[in-house]
Amino acid sequence: MTKHPNKAVVVWLAIGLAGFVAFPWYAIQDTAWYYVLPEIFQGSETANGLVQAFVNDRPWLLSGLVGLVIAACGLLRTAGKAQSTWLLAGGFVGLAGLGITGFTIGAVGWSVRGLNELFGELTVNQFGMGMGAFVVLLSLIVLFSFGLARRGYFKGDLFVASAVMCCSALLALFIAFPVTKALSGAFFDDNGAWSLAALVGRIADERIWTLGCLRGGYQCGVAWNTLFLALATAFGTTVLGTMMALLAERCAGPKLQAPLRVVALLPIITPPFVVGMGLILLFGRAGIVNQFLEYAFGLEPTRWFYGLLGTWLAQLFAFTPIAFMIMRGVVQGLAPSLEEAAQILHADRRQTFFTVTLPLLKPGLANAFLVGFIESIADFGNPIVVGGQYSVLSTDIFFAIVGAQFDQGRAAALAWILTLFALGIFALQRGLLGRQNYTTVSGKGDSGIPMPLPAGLRRTLYSVVYPWLGFTLIVYVFAFIGGFVQTWGRDYTITFAHFKTAFGLEWGDFGLVWAGAAWNSMFTTLKLAGISAPLTAGIGLMIAYLLARTDFRGRNSFEFVALLAFAIPGTVLGVSYILAFNVPPVELTGTGLIIVICFMFRNLPVGVQAGTAAFKQLDKALDEASLMLRATTAQTLFTVILPLLKPALVAALVYSFARAMTTVSAVIFLVTAENELATTYIIGRVGNGDYGVALAYCTVLIVLMSLIIALIQFTVGERKLGRRKGATTAAVVAPA
Q1: CA distance linking residue 562 with residue 605, whole number of Å
Q2: CATH topology classification for 206-486+719-733
Q3: Which tens digits make up the pLDDT trace of 667-701?
Q4: CB 566 within 8 A of CB 378
Q5: Poorest-confidence range of 292-301, 307-316, 384-393?
Q6: Which tens digit of pLDDT belongs to each residue from 155-165?
Q7: 172 contacts 561 by C-beta, under 8 angstroms
Q8: How far is CA 355 from CA 337, 348, 361, in A?
């Protein structure tokens, strides 16, 4: 027990009171909350919670203050069950009062304003939640969590209890709530009446489940198309990502490791339609491959590339880097002593790899497969560019929402199918891993040299990975050249005019002028992505820690909701955010904050999966040893565990930042003129036929993100496991 058992309670009570006094209660329109701090004791929009309650006729806000007072009464009791009653009661009263009044008044505010005009007595309308309300709600959630811990839940650990409850609240508000709001549309018929038959009728549509392609028909249903493509993509990305990780960590020499990682990560720092454009320039009807076949063999150009093959290849480019980042951390964490023990027992390198090394990779393989599968079913950009007549659920949902049919019920029904697919693969992953132990990083010393890979496996890696990386470079060379020619396909004159149009600089009367048309979108994208990336990585690794190190009721549901954002297409997630956060109490539409939140929770599952795979390799004895030395759970996490999670941290930071810089579908409905993003600017240029400027912008994005990713890796550093170097060189020259 700590020296001051109630110190944390006092701190959060003070934070809650500060939320009522020191910050504006409601969201401030057209400016940031910190600009109006001098006006928090006046004004209907800028005032703090106390002024809003007592002066501006909003007494329902006092329910939060009452909750804080009730929780404060717990300080009069000894830390334990007696105190927990007051903390639970205070947190519940405050959260229930603010939540119920917030949602009910926010929902009926417009109708009640008509009554106000007639009677002129009550002011029951309110604005969206601001910084003051956020701080108070956060403090009430934490105090309620402390009450659960004092009651004996979460083994009495205040940090774990508050972490679980805060993460649960975030997942409920920003994933479960908007997704549920969007999916509920499947239960309403064309007249707006609730009907279970409406859902059944939409899901049972023959266009979704037909197997006509197996009976000589034109094509199969969209659900089977999506499932087959997702399985093929997940398998391909997992295999390629694992091979790249083994090559980078066990075969490539020190001079080749950095270039190999850069080339392997290129697809993740590129807008998805750039890869599609590069592939079309290679394999499209007028692409170089078709032109060569026509010239050399007289074969007439066709659209053979468009469809399943093109979509699968584009998704391999897009999602293999995710598998590579997940698997690289897992391969790094393998204990050489286990491989050495197998060889001491007279197992050769081939037997050791397939009976010791490969089984220890199962957590990473399962997580990489899961992420690849969910990424594939949720992907929109690649199928829309190179899918041709091969329809998948994500594109059908998009056209159901924005197309001429405008059938939100059908879109919601298709989204239900995606969710069920994700749930099925999630259950399969859990069943395969079970409760087996994959610990390879313990508190004991392990300075062995990793085993050189078998000669046959090395040859396989060389023959697959290097051609794939070379193919990747070819695609990007085409995309890179496109920004330096006047007009692709007609005029190949070298020019820098496209870069000048987008990123021109001029000297004016007051100094340097950012004259290029793309600067505003670039700065906005960098700002929003820079804010979201560390938050995404931090929350993702925290959730991974809770899943790997704690056991609590609802844990499986907690994990599934954390992964649910990947199962929902970006277009549906964006629309659901508009539907959920367009009115008080959480009114975010039109702000940069809603884009940041969308970035965070759209990319959260990668951080969770990378962290989960890494945690499975860390011996719990490390945590226990730290706790026995009287360190708190928070101190153990940040000083002992986090340094061992550097590969997972790099993966989460790099992926979340890159995806925030290049995402399209999730934010296409959320951007505004004030918050234009790089990808929406590029899409606008492509729509106008200005491919040169679009490709020039993409080139700048690739270079800029490469530098930022290198900075992230340099800042985070490498994980130190006390193992000797030289294995990669040995792997190249050692005999089989």
Answers
A1: 6
A2: MetI-like fold (1.10.3720)
A3: 877 888 788 888 888 877 876 767 788 888 888 88
A4: yes
A5: 292-301
A6: 888 999 999 99
A7: yes
A8: 14, 11, 11
